[in-house]
Here is the input.
Amino acid sequence: MATMQTESRRTDAEAAGWQPAWADGEESPLARLTAEQLEQLAQELDAIHEEVYADLGERDARYIRATIALHRRLVLAARALLLGSRYRPLWLAGTASLSLAKILENMEIGHNVMHGQWDWMNDPDINSQTWDWDTASPADAWRHSHNYEHHTFTNIRGKDRDLGYEIMRVDPQQRWHPVYLFQPLYNLLLMGFFEWGVALHDLNFDAIHAGEKSKEQLRAELKAIGAKARGQIVKDYMAFPSLAALAALVTSRGSLASARTTFATTLKANFTANIVRNVWAHSIIFCGHFPDQTYTFSEEEVADETRGGWYVRQLLGAANIDGGPLFHLLAGNLSFQVEHHLYPDMPSSRYAEIAPRVRDVCRRYGLPYNTGPLHRQLGTVHRTILRLAFPGGRARRKPGAYRP
Here is the structure.
């Protein structure tokens, strides 16, 4: 499906099927700021980062270690409960605990550790270069496609491959193709199997079709995905169901029927927990990037981009989700997607603290601060996916400057 974005290698934007910027005539707030304002804005936002990093210490280390410990307790509880998975109440409790554990590990721990947010601790066990996570994506491939490509080229049309993940039309300035008629359907599949979609996305099909990736590199990347996939499948669908079946065989005094039932119900619980985690991760990530409020940019708009311009692009290209502390924890604090894009290497536990200061910067510089409840953000995302499955479409009205 990525071939529909690579008709020929003219410019990156043309190859991705993007039309000229701002066809609807709306001006980006980036264009309204002077060079002096951008420089001052950069200094203010840099100062926030420097102040937080100067203050990092024991309470931050306790937070991430406590979060990792909570994840492990949830996993142990889930595995213990699922030893009796043939009993409905234990199946429900074990599946719920495992789903929460996978969400916590994927969102607040794995994603953020591999961003380097905790490298300042110099703990070899909590380090971006050594951490691997409970998902299908190999860590090295994900760090390149996400940390480098996405966070460097955020929402630049033709450069940020996360805009639609190479298979969906999520911006009206992207040329329509008949295959997009099916995107509401395959988006549902992507929701359920998001970890596998991300793993394949990391391969960069545009580069493969353009001949920019050697066969040796492709084979190495496929081998890494295969090894990770094999580990995930063996762990969730063979090893733990087998352990539960063995426990059932012992406790039922050799009943093969109980062992078979327990194997099947444990496998079902693991599959369900993976689906729950995938749907949650898909929803949080899509809400942070594709609501109506966010802007996209042409390569011409960001040519000779300054530090201040980079900051503004991050502000305009991300959206937050309103919620309480538990919601933010389970969202990996990616519910503060604006703050995360400004400071991807800042410990996620600090985003809530700095959010008022970021909002104040937006107020003083006449910039929008994109946020809203989950149901509204998610609703606009799926409305966009449905509407842009068909030809045409216009960018919806963007929010004005932030007002308290």
